[in-house]
Protein backbone atom coordinates (compact mmCIF):
# COMPACT_ATOMS: atom_id res chain seq x y z
CA UNK A 1 0.00 0.00 0.00
CA UNK A 2 1.16 3.53 -0.74
CA UNK A 3 0.41 6.58 1.36
CA UNK A 4 -2.26 8.86 -0.08
CA UNK A 5 -0.72 11.39 -2.48
CA UNK A 6 2.27 9.18 -3.34
CA UNK A 7 2.26 8.31 -7.02
CA UNK A 8 2.93 4.69 -8.00
CA UNK A 9 4.77 6.22 -10.98
CA UNK A 10 7.25 8.09 -8.76
CA UNK A 11 10.68 8.16 -10.36
CA UNK A 12 13.44 6.73 -8.21
CA UNK A 13 16.88 7.59 -9.49
CA UNK A 14 20.47 8.34 -8.53
CA UNK A 15 19.41 11.20 -6.24
CA UNK A 16 16.87 9.11 -4.32
CA UNK A 17 17.73 7.42 -1.03
CA UNK A 18 15.42 4.57 -0.02
CA UNK A 19 15.05 3.57 3.63
CA UNK A 20 13.19 0.50 4.77
CA UNK A 21 10.83 1.44 7.56
CA UNK A 22 9.96 -2.16 8.35
CA UNK A 23 9.33 -2.65 12.05
CA UNK A 24 10.01 0.99 12.91
CA UNK A 25 8.13 4.12 13.82
CA UNK A 26 9.69 6.88 11.70
CA UNK A 27 9.05 10.55 12.31
CA UNK A 28 10.37 13.23 10.02
CA UNK A 29 11.19 16.44 11.80
CA UNK A 30 13.15 19.65 11.79
CA UNK A 31 16.37 20.23 13.74
CA UNK A 32 16.83 23.58 15.52
CA UNK A 33 20.55 24.11 16.10
CA UNK A 34 20.33 27.51 17.80
CA UNK A 35 18.15 27.18 20.89
CA UNK A 36 18.45 29.18 24.10
CA UNK A 37 17.12 26.74 26.74
CA UNK A 38 15.11 29.29 28.71
CA UNK A 39 11.91 27.41 29.58
CA UNK A 40 10.49 23.87 29.32
CA UNK A 41 7.53 25.15 27.27
CA UNK A 42 9.87 25.54 24.31
CA UNK A 43 9.84 21.79 23.72
CA UNK A 44 6.04 21.63 23.39
CA UNK A 45 6.08 24.53 20.93
CA UNK A 46 8.87 22.85 18.95
CA UNK A 47 7.02 19.53 18.74
CA UNK A 48 3.79 21.25 17.68
CA UNK A 49 5.66 22.87 14.78
CA UNK A 50 7.33 19.63 13.63
CA UNK A 51 10.71 20.14 15.29
CA UNK A 52 12.01 16.91 16.81
CA UNK A 53 15.55 17.93 17.77
CA UNK A 54 16.80 20.93 19.76
CA UNK A 55 20.51 21.75 19.98
CA UNK A 56 21.86 24.70 21.93
CA UNK A 57 22.52 25.64 25.49
CA UNK A 58 21.63 27.52 28.60
CA UNK A 59 20.45 26.77 32.09
CA UNK A 60 17.00 28.29 32.28
CA UNK A 61 15.98 31.93 32.77
CA UNK A 62 19.43 33.40 33.46
CA UNK A 63 21.32 36.29 31.89
CA UNK A 64 23.91 33.95 30.38
CA UNK A 65 21.20 31.86 28.71
CA UNK A 66 19.62 34.95 27.19
CA UNK A 67 22.96 35.99 25.70
CA UNK A 68 24.45 32.69 24.49
CA UNK A 69 23.48 29.17 23.44
CA UNK A 70 25.92 27.39 25.73
CA UNK A 71 25.56 25.59 29.05
CA UNK A 72 28.43 26.55 31.33
CA UNK A 73 30.23 24.06 33.52
CA UNK A 74 29.90 20.45 34.59
CA UNK A 75 27.23 21.06 37.24
CA UNK A 76 24.88 22.95 34.89
CA UNK A 77 25.47 20.42 32.12
CA UNK A 78 24.51 17.53 34.41
CA UNK A 79 21.42 19.37 35.69
CA UNK A 80 20.23 20.20 32.16
CA UNK A 81 20.69 16.58 31.08
CA UNK A 82 18.77 15.38 34.15
CA UNK A 83 16.00 17.92 33.56
CA UNK A 84 15.60 16.85 29.93
CA UNK A 85 15.34 13.10 30.56
CA UNK A 86 11.53 13.05 30.69
CA UNK A 87 10.99 15.45 27.77
CA UNK A 88 9.90 13.61 24.57
CA UNK A 89 12.25 15.39 22.16
CA UNK A 90 15.89 14.95 21.11
CA UNK A 91 18.09 17.48 22.91
CA UNK A 92 21.78 18.32 22.71
CA UNK A 93 23.69 20.81 24.85
CA UNK A 94 26.72 22.88 23.85
CA UNK A 95 29.32 23.71 26.47
CA UNK A 96 31.48 26.83 26.65
CA UNK A 97 34.54 26.49 24.45
CA UNK A 98 36.26 29.74 25.38
CA UNK A 99 38.74 29.07 28.15
CA UNK A 100 42.45 29.63 28.67
CA UNK A 101 42.93 26.09 29.98
CA UNK A 102 41.85 22.69 28.70
CA UNK A 103 40.47 21.14 31.93
CA UNK A 104 37.13 23.01 32.16
CA UNK A 105 36.34 22.19 28.52
CA UNK A 106 37.18 18.51 28.99
CA UNK A 107 35.04 18.49 32.13
CA UNK A 108 32.01 19.70 30.15
CA UNK A 109 32.49 17.05 27.45
CA UNK A 110 32.82 14.35 30.11
CA UNK A 111 29.63 15.68 31.74
CA UNK A 112 27.71 15.10 28.49
CA UNK A 113 28.13 18.18 26.29
CA UNK A 114 27.35 17.53 22.64
CA UNK A 115 30.16 19.87 21.68
CA UNK A 116 31.81 23.14 22.62
CA UNK A 117 30.84 26.51 21.19
CA UNK A 118 33.27 29.40 20.89
TrEMBL record:
Pfam families: Amidohydro_1. Keywords: Nickel. GO terms for biological process: urea catabolic process. The keyword Flavoprotein does not apply. PROSITE patterns: UREASE_1, UREASE_3. Its EC number is 3.5.1.5. GO terms for molecular function: nickel cation binding; urease activity. Its cofactor is Ni cation. Residues 29-118 form the Urease domain. It is an enzyme of class 3 (hydrolase). This is urease. It comes from uncultured prokaryote. The gene is ureC.
